[in-house]
Amino acid sequence: MIRILLADDHHLVRTGFRVILETEDDLEVVGEAADGLQAVALAAQTAPDVVLMDVEMPGLDGLEATRRITAAGERPAVLILTTFDRDDYLFSALEAGASGFLLKNGTPEALIDAVRVLARGDALLAPELTRRVIATFARPGGAAARARGERLAELTPREHEVLVALAGGATNAEIAAALQLGEATVKTHVSRVLTKLSLRDRTQAVVFAYQHGVVTPGPPREGPGR
């Protein structure tokens, strides 16, 4: 059972999310928060697998609440849900440790799929959002022009290959096929890459790879960046 915490200052929105999610046998809403402070407290009390987090809430906003929740440990994963398609929200959410970012105008099916993706330890960005992340970090003279981080030297050649594949949005199955490895082996390599680089998930791996010039922009992949 996937445990979910809802954080949104609109009661009707939380009710709508609850109705959508609890139609699925494997999803359970374990709490509702009307502001960021409540979200942080309930995340500690209810131990959810996934938090659905609004951005603009009274008191403590969703971005700072995300930062506090993710700083406490590996779980829960945070999915930012907002009506505002703004780059500053997107990048602030990623920097705060969010594992996914969706707009509220999406479909119920997209929301359910996103929760399951995050619950199994992956990350999720819509393709157009992934392209914006890449465009921002690959601008000439920007973050991608900085020297590679010292942590990159800790990666083995195989782990470096895996990081490059992650930056391209490849799934574990696709990486396994490309490198002629078993999926279990790929999963181990991915885990080691994230640990050595002190990254939370695959989304942060994409950002890190472009920030530090590990890869350069190419044609965008079609499909979710996970």
UniProtKB/TrEMBL annotation:
It holds the Pfam family Response_reg. Residues 3-119 form the Response regulatory domain. Coiled coil: none annotated. Keywords: DNA-binding, Phosphoprotein, Transcription, Transcription regulation. SUPFAM superfamilies: C-terminal effector domain of the bipartite response regulators, CheY-like. InterPro entries: CheY-like_superfamily, NreC/VraR/RcsB-like_REC, Sig_transdc_resp-reg_C-effctor, Sig_transdc_resp-reg_receiver, Tscrpt_reg_LuxR_C, WalR-like. It comes from the Bacteria. Residues 148-213 form the HTH luxR-type domain. GO terms for biological process: phosphorelay signal transduction system; regulation of DNA-templated transcription. The modification 4-aspartylphosphate is found at residue 54. One of its GO terms (molecular function) is DNA binding. This is DNA-binding response regulator.
